[in-house]
Write a structure and sequence with these properties.
Keywords: Membrane, Transmembrane, Transmembrane helix. The protein is mainly alpha-helical. About 80% of the residues lie in helices and about 0% in strands. α1 runs antiparallel to α2. The relative contact order is 0.16.
Length: about 45
Amino acid sequence: MVILLAVGWYSTRSLTWTGWGLLAALFCGIIPYGFIIWGARRGH
């Protein structure tokens, strides 16, 4: 997920575009990981 933030910053050298890296990290890592944890706690 850190790489997505770094690519977003490096490609534009702007903190505003780092938001796109954060959005990508959210959908590519944080949400799927959350579903895995949620399913494991429910016993699936």
